[in-house]
Amino acid sequence: MIEINRNGEVWVFAEQEGGALSDVPLELLSKARELADALGVKVGAVLLGSDVKALAAKLIAHGADRVYVAQDGRLAHYQTNGYAKVLCDLIGRHAPQICLFGATPIGRDLAPRVASAMRCGLTADCTDLQIGDHKLPDGTVHENLLLQIRPAFGGNIIATIINYDRWPQMATVREGVMPMTEPDAARRGEVVQCDAGLNGFVLPLEILESVRRQRKVNLKAARVIVAGGAGVGSRENFKLLWDLANCLGAAVGGSRAAVDLGYIDRDHQVGQTGTTVRPALYIAAGLSGAIQHRAGMEESAKIIAINTDPNAPIFDVAHYGIVGDLNVVIPKMIKAIRSGGK
Fold first, then answer.
1. Are residues 187 and 284 located together in one domain of the fold?
2. Does one domain contain both 46 and 163?
3. What are the residues whose beta carbons fall under 8 Å from the beta carbon of 107, sequence distance 6 or more?
4. Which structural domain, as residue segments, surrounds residue 76?
5. 83 domain residue, yes or no
6. On the chain, which terminus has fewer CB atoms closer than 10 Å, C or N?
């Protein structure tokens, strides 16, 4: 735990692999910029790796005021021990008040290790972050805290978690939850070269080979998504959704229930534990609209829901609702699209 520093920066862990930044830190920088402006402090990005300094310009363009760069050959490939040591040293040296990580495999591994070492709290899988005050039962008011907001108890409630006495305040945020702002190439920032401090440090593992599998679909980039839930009924019935998607030039998504039932692959999952999307059009077929799924798609520009249950929660967020059997409705939609609406 570090001493509470009300002037401390808002930090984002700038996750990169193979010398390429993922989208997550760029999304987090937009939220970090908002939080830092509310607090009147600067935004910092922490960039660890080997020969990664050139990535600092992109982080600055997306909102960072300072980029702390620590380069070492032992940081070329992610390993928990080395990354955690460097990050903890930097936190101890610069005392940020907030540290944000993407809820990626790397972020979910690194953030708890750092939080444990710094003896501070960590809120995982946040869906929103705000700055606000908190009043204790004894009347003490703590101002300008990070309000860490996430679904809890299986998505049945939305919890706001605060950490008023053990800093830095730390949270992980899922990919796609925070909209990425457009980069500003004219922004100027400071690149701070930092000693990795790994002299004499021996990594416990040797990486012999790294194999990555590309996702089958990029849901975040899709302008139109046709998604199905458990109500589709079977993997065979999902062919109707694929046919509709092909007519619209759309991507196909699914709820966690549909994925768990084997109707569609996990890469297509939309929702709290899948991908968060904001397409121009989202067609939800056979989806009840559980809060876990709505958390990942309710900011779509237009939502069309198809369900046999007129009281299904999905209709609460849909702009247009069709009460009916998707096996009847979707073929009619396909026919109308192919005939040009005639």
1. no
2. yes
3. 13, 15, 24, 101, 172
4. 10-194
5. yes
6. C
Q: What is the pTM assigned to this prediction?
A: 0.82
d(CA 77, CA 80): 10
pLDDT digits 0-9 by tens, 264-301: 999 999 988 788 899 999 999 999 998 889 988 999 99
Residue pointed to by tokens 């690149």: 191
Section 194-206 average pLDDT? 86
Q: Is 240 part of any domain? A: yes
Determine phi and psi for 121, rounding to 5 degrees. Answer: -85, 165
* One-letter-per-residue 3-state SS of the chain: CECCCCCCCEEEECCEECCEECHHHHHHHHHHHHHHHHHCCCEEEEEEECCCHHHHHHHHHCCCCEEEEEECHHHCCCCHHHHHHHHHHHHHHHCCCEEEEECCHHHHHHHHHHHHHHCCCEEEEECEEEEEEEECCCCCEEEEEEEEEEEECCCCEEEEECCCCCECEEEEECCCCCCCCCCCCCCCCEEEEECCCCCCCCCCCCCCCCCCCCCCCCHHHCCEEEEECHHHCCCCCHHHHHHHHHHHCCEEEECHHHHHCCCCCHHHEECCCCECCCCCEEEEECCCCCHHHHCCCCCCCEEEEEECCCCCHHHHCCCEEEECCHHHHHHHHHHHHHCCCC
Same domain, 153 and 237: no
Residues 260 and 330 in one domain: yes
**Tens-place pLDDT, residues 114-160:** 999 999 999 998 989 999 999 989 989 999 999 999 877 766 678 89
Rounded distance between C-alpha atoms, residue 6 and residue 144, angstroms? 9
Least Cα distance to 121 among 163, 78, 177, 173 occurs for 163
Residues 151 and 242 in one domain: no
63-77-115 Cα angle (round to 5): 60
Beta bridge partners of 187: none
- Identify whether 207 is part of a domain: no
